[in-house]
Amino acid sequence: MTLPISEQTVIVTGAARGLGAAITRAFAREGAKVAINYRNSREQAEALAKSLGERTHAFQADIRDGAAVRELVADVTRTLGAPTTVVHNALADFSFNGDARPKLGELSWEEITKQLDTAVKGALNLMQATRPAMAAAGFGRVVTIGTNLFQNPVVPYHDYTAAKGALLSLTRTAAAELGPDGITVNMVSGGLLRTTDASAGTPEAVFNLIAGSTPLRRVTTPEEVADAVLFFASPWARAVTGQNLIVDGGLVFG
């Protein structure tokens, strides 16, 4: 079974700002009903929902809290219909500035678990809460957001990269288990994006270095990553699951 994007009900986590907002706009542009999940950014989430029309609504929930996620899914179902699609974009508070990140000798385990709780525990909560309706419908799409730092660990984002690595593993094991229910699970991994709140602290020299290192000679935008997310939700990706698609202008391969 497949559904066109215009017939899907999508939850986007961390959707009020940056890449999450770009993903929300992309799905809304294609006619989907979109739930904008946020933790603290209420004003931005509600403004985004208002700008996109009646098929888009804002929902507060901390995706690290299983009970809150179950209530989120119930609220979305009452307001927009049962979710068919989840995009797990939420990011624990983080600044993409390598000079400001702790090196291994300074890194605490708590900093790693902070990233794991949002990236991995959040994904688990979302899949557990949405699987029953997706399985009953025989259709579901889960897209997680990763990073090209797996392949190119040029900055000491140890906590962030470790959590995203664990998320990729969960993405693939979930794909294996959920496939018989008609649910695909894939990851889209961007590089440094120009520009989000998280990358606002990145020095301009780093942007220029990355642009000069890519075959396309530019830094990827949130909108370009968002369009790749749409692919995994679309009928064209109906036979694709357990994959990690890198969207960074060709900075890294594979």
Number of discrete helical segments: 7
Label the CATH architecture: 3-Layer(aba) Sandwich
What is the first-to-last residue Cα distance? 30 Å
| Spatial arrangement of strands, main beta sheet | 3-2-1-4-5-6-7
Low-confidence stretches: none
CATH superfamily: NAD(P)-binding Rossmann-like Domain
Folded structure, characterized:
With 254 residues, the chain is α/β, with parallel strands linked by helices. It has a single domain (5-247), classed as Rossmann fold (3-Layer(aba) Sandwich). Helices cover 43% and strands 15% of the residues. It has seven helices and seven strands, in the order βαβαβαβαβαβααβ. A seven-stranded parallel sheet has the order 3-2-1-4-5-6-7, with helices on both faces. The radius of gyration is 17 Å and the shape is globular.
Describe the secondary-structure layout.
Elements: E1 9-12, H1 18-29, E2 33-38, H2 42-52, E3 56-60, H3 66-79, E4 85-88, H4 109-137, E5 140-147, H5 158-178, E6 183-190, H6 204-213, H7 222-233, E7 244-247
Parallel strand pairs: 1-2, 1-4, 2-3, 4-5, 5-6, 6-7
What does this entry show, briefly?
The protein has 254 residues and is of the alpha/beta class.
Main features:
Rossmann fold, 7 helices, 7 strands, 15% strand
